[in-house]
Amino acid sequence: MVAPPEGAADGRSVVFLLIRSLRPEQWTKNLIVFAGLIFGRELFDSSSLVRALSAFAVFCVLSGVVYTVNDIMDREADRRHPLKVLRPIASGALSPRLAGTVAAILAAAALIGSFVLGFWFGAVALAYLVLQALYSGPLKHIVILDVLTIAIGFVLRAVAGAVAINVAISHWLLIVTILGALFLALSKRRHELVMLADGCEAIVRAKHPNAVEETDALLLKVISERIADHQLDDTQLTLHELELIRQSFLDTLRGAYHPRIEYPELTRPGARQEALPAERLHETPPPVKVKSENA
User: Which helix (H) or strand (E) holds 112?
Assistant: First the structure.
């Protein structure tokens, strides 16, 4: 797929494209910041409420910066994706240099604001930004570590919310947060993989392909349809991981649903044999060749 030239505005507002790159629809994940406000019984304290809202705004900006940087780093791979190619940076509608400059300014402003709220809150916000930067780099390609990184990111948000309003951080809050994040991340990936596996098995059983190439084509069709229907958008699976999954499905289905060899029917002892037609009664049976022992 050929992408348009980078930096092409395409008639759309640059501000709108920048906001899209910040992914405001994902900011609901930062609501965990208010856990300390709720469980610390400070919900009706105006000062604590203002500080919690400020903390929420800081993490919304930081998470938006992480999404933008991730789009800049993955723009070449996104251009080969049927849906991610529509993102502002991957499509070429937004210049990577402009997006990177704005992301750097927003990150600096958010970190300055976080240290204004308090030194320890700023330290947690900085740790979150560094962790997400590592996740956008090598960690998201390492099994288990990628899910742990996501879970620790939620824990840091919860800790930051408690630190911002100066309430004690409950051990139960940390345990519930990390276990809840791990459960959601792992169960969501498992659910999507199970649904994908069920779809692949169903189409192979229905079509009865006679060759490995036909089976592979059916698997590609199912995976492409799942991507087009946005069913894999939130699984965090990369194209390389989907390719490994497809190959694993192919090996499994090839062994389970390969074409069967048709063997001749054998007459069981004592079974009634059908009579030969009249025209075959006088046929001479073919001679039987017997090999000598010296042959």
Answer: helix 96-117
The Cα–Cα gap between 271 and 291 comes to 32
What is the block-wise mean pLDDT of the chain (295 residues), using blocks of 10 residues? 46 80 90 89 88 95 92 81 78 89 94 94 94 84 81 91 88 84 77 79 82 84 77 66 82 70 59 55 56 52
In a domain, 179, yes or no: no
Domain with 108 in it: 14-169
> Which pTM does this prediction carry?
0.66
In the listed set 138, 169, 200, which residue is the last one of a domain according to the structure? Answer: 169
Report yes or no: 85 and 1 within 8 Å, Cβ to Cβ: yes
155 and 30 part of one domain: yes
Cβ atoms < 10 Å from Cβ of 127: 15
Residue among 184, 43, 61 at smallest CA distance from 114:
61
Domains in the chain: how many in total?
A: 2
Cα pseudo-dihedral 110, 116, 117, 123, rounded to 10: 70
